[in-house]
Amino acid sequence: MKDTVEPYVTEDGRTIGGVLMELKHITLKFGGVVAIKDISFDIREGEIRAIIGPNGAGKSSMLNVISGFYTPTEGEVWFEGKKRPQMRPYKVAQQGIARTFQNIALFSGMSTLDNIMTGRITHMSAGLFSQAAWWGKAEREETANREAVEKIIDFLEIQHIRKTPVGRLPYGLQKRVELGRALAAEPRLLLLDEPMAGMNVEEKEDMSRFILDVNDEFGTTIVLIEHDMGVVMDLSDRVVVMDYGKKIGDGPPEEVRANPDVIEAYLGVSHD
Amino acid sequence: MALHGASTDELCSIPALLARNVRLYGDKPAYREKEFGIWQCWTWGQANDEIRAIAMGMLALGLERGEHVAVIGRNRPAHYWAMVAVQMCGAIPVPLYQDAVAEEMAYVLDHCGARFVVCGDQEQVDKVIEVQDRIHHIEHVLYNDKRGMRKYDHTHLNWLKDIEEEGRAAHARLEPELEARIAELTWESTCVMLYTSGTTGKPKGVVLSNRNIIETAKASVEFDHLGQDEEVLAYLPMAWVGDFIFSIGQAMVAGFCVNCPESPDTMMTDLREIGPTYFFAPPRIFETMLTNVMIRMEDAGDLKHALFKHFMEFAKDTGEEYGMPRYRTKRSRPTLRRRLRWMYRYAMGIGFAIETIVENAVRGFFVRLRHPLEARKYFRARGPLLNLYPQPLRDYFNYRTGEVLVYGPLKNTLGLSRIRVAYTAGEAIGPEIFDFYRSLGINLKQLYGQTEASVFITQQPDGQVRSDTVGVPSPGVEVKIAENGEVFYRSPGTFVEYYKNAESTASTKDPEGWVATGDAGFFEEATGHLRIIDRAKDVGKMADGRLFAPKYVENKLKFYPDILEAVVFGAGRDRCTAFINIDLTAVGNWAERNNIAYASYQELAGHPRVLDTIQAHVEEVNRSVADDPMLSGCQIHRFLILHKELDADDGELTRTRKVRRNIIAEKFADLVTALYDGSDSIYTETEVTYEDGRKGRIKATLQIRDAAVAPAKASGQVAA
């Protein structure tokens, strides 16, 4: 199944389209350290793609390559059928790739509303003076953006913390606000770096539901890194497994779970 | 009191009242809902269009006269509209509790035989689909919130907006039919069917006619001089009779605006934004508000804390006289003279307020110099210097100063600044809590009512408000006390029957129309006010024949902020014992201040210092119970703090949060035994239901404490 590029419909009725992003022979070196070694895989339109692996396997580096924060030492990133030249992260963001961070990176003194508003930055074009004078285009844009933000607040059910500074919120809600900020950019590809780390079971359930809803309602393609195997196996359509910078498995969750290399990487195998 | 006949002004149904409101107040706001951060508003005219469109859409789906339509969802205008639309079609709306689990819902859906179900969102639709394989008569499910519904099989599922569109498209064909059905509605046709929360046994469907609802609403609107410009916040469960009377009955009769909060979590913020003029809340809400205020005052600076204490103390005696809003008999714009007087008062208040702050800040500074660590203990605030004024004016200006410094800002924070009339009912309210709100100048009153009476049985008139009575009979209501102390009433609001339950109807309502409330009470001779003691069937005898009134003791316990719920046992036994639920907010806050770490309710509930505190409360209650010679036997000898919070999902409380005594006694039978066999601790396991319906078990070892008992005051002269 993974070799075909034909669109298909999953069991729960979602449509998985053609290839949205393809990573070809990516290698990433920091001096002498090889973080990622010759990894290739693709991300298809509308799917939930998980990247898993033990600590230090290079998962976050991979996400940083996709988001344009790191430029791969070797290899190519193809996005929407075109080879992506080396570009700055904000340019990548403008292409429709948004992300959340492993350690929450919100503006803790600002309210939930303002934080999510910052996600709309790619949709603002009014100039400095127009913004300062709050006139004409700036005002119209702000209204339109606020409307989009309110829809996201409604979607994520965080109306009650709209005006609360995010620094005062519990961890689980901060994660949700961060997801909201990423969604505000209306991305085609959403990168989630450990969205459920450090959450309790209830918060994980909520977050899983939101991830599925985002994928379902907006048709957003999602790449996520996660350690909770239960969550990964339930949520994702396909899984990439990394270990020591190498890809050791790729395919649907059931297939990956049965892969002996993956079992070895996660559980260890006695060599006798 | 005519039992038959029509309304004097031909307005004998909710749709008829709606038509009148459209005529009179067409462009005034009728419904508001906060959605996407903005208050969306519908005028009476717009609401009427929506309601008619829904009604015609339902006709197009084949809604018949007289059938029941279930409505499940949180308070949203569309759900209220759906109910009125159902009435327009000649059918009967049946609102259900939205937080009921699928099992509970199944019984009611089955009992009322609904073919149509209107759901709020995906969660409710899921529950209906879950029970649909057992209840085959459900044919059409309509939903209001589209989210997550895309993938569902839509053969019998419709979005409410689509139904409206369908109705609008077919209006030429359906309009005459709709008009005919509206015209058929009479004084005696059923307005709504509401299920009782069922303290004991299965819920019963109470059938209320148009006459019941409209006449009651009219009388109560007049009683409190409610006008067209009132604002109310609709946040109580739609399945509860109170919400139906306030948000549909009175709103339609008086023509005022119903505001729906954005989500249940934002209720407090929305309350503040709307600033209702007419407000209804169970005592629990007032308790929570007060607890939050107290917690926040603990965190406030010394000066604020001291001023708060001083002025609240002052208001206790003077609030009733100087704080209450003027009761309006006729509507008129304030004259220039009144405006000037108001400005003068406010200016004086501000002047004295500045003086008070400065004075106390200076004094506070010196107190802090002398007692740097315990300033709060030694610093008492002082009121403004008013030596030049004669005594009555002093109090008056003192209160004005307090209004500027404390009462006004506090009322504003709570969202109660504009309250003209507020009611509390359902449970007894703690006298301290009641007096707190009244001394702030909030006209909080009590009423006594039940579903079967369309709410109103007795209520307190303005100016005759006390915390220990529930007022005088409402207009048009006759009340009598039976020999055994049970309260009976007869009123225009008296329900028609229990649906499909003639037996219960006959045992509750006698042929002359008198209805048994199931509560024991008596009239105070001096004032004519009714006082309720307890549920008549809960009032029992102890082994030695002394009177046992559990609710009386439980209420006294619950008045402590630390105690959320209490269940007292003792019927047929030689002494009383109790289960206690602590209030996690209040006790949790206390624990934080005292460096007590805890991870869960269970852990905090088992902490020895918490037990000490609760023991002190119990002993205090025992002393106060001992003062009453009739009830001195109800003192609590032993108690324990439960390892879980009592919850409606586990069947321990009703959906309106009333204790289900028998079920609790059965479920925790091992604990009750332990309370009576003298053991110090007991190990127990309990099954709990999570919000999504799954089950789990919690295990705990509970400590049992003995509480000191006070000797009865009037020495043992208790008749058996």
From TrEMBL, chain A:
It comes from the Bacteria. It holds the Pfam family ABC_tran. Residues 21-269 form the ABC transporter domain. CDD domains: ABC_Mj1267_LivG_branched. The keyword Metal-binding does not apply. The keyword Transport applies. SUPFAM superfamilies: P-loop containing nucleoside triphosphate hydrolases. InterPro entries: AAA+_ATPase (IPR003593), ABC_AA/LPS_Transport (IPR051120), ABC_transporter-like_ATP-bd (IPR003439), BCA_ABC_TP_C (IPR032823), P-loop_NTPase (IPR027417). GO terms for molecular function: ATP binding; ATP hydrolysis activity. GO terms for cellular component: plasma membrane. Keywords: ATP-binding, Nucleotide-binding, Transport. PANTHER family: ABC TRANSPORTER ATP-BINDING PROTEIN (PTHR45772:SF1), CONSERVED COMPONENT OF ABC TRANSPORTER FOR NATURAL AMINO ACIDS-RELATED (PTHR45772). This is Amino acid/amide ABC transporter ATP-binding protein 1 (HAAT family). It comes from Rhodovulum marinum.
UniProtKB/TrEMBL annotation, chain B:
This is Long-chain acyl-CoA synthetase. Coiled coil: none annotated. Keywords: Fatty acid metabolism, Ligase, Lipid metabolism. It comes from the Bacteria. Transmembrane segments: none annotated. InterPro entries: AMP-binding_CS (IPR020845), AMP-dep_synth/lig_dom (IPR000873), ANL_N_sf (IPR042099). GO terms for cellular component: membrane. Pfam families: AMP-binding (PF00501), AMP-binding_C_3 (PF23562). Residues 19-499 form the AMP-dependent synthetase/ligase domain. One of its GO terms (molecular function) is long-chain fatty acid-CoA ligase activity. It comes from Rhodovulum marinum. The keyword Nucleotide-binding does not apply. The keyword Lipid metabolism applies.
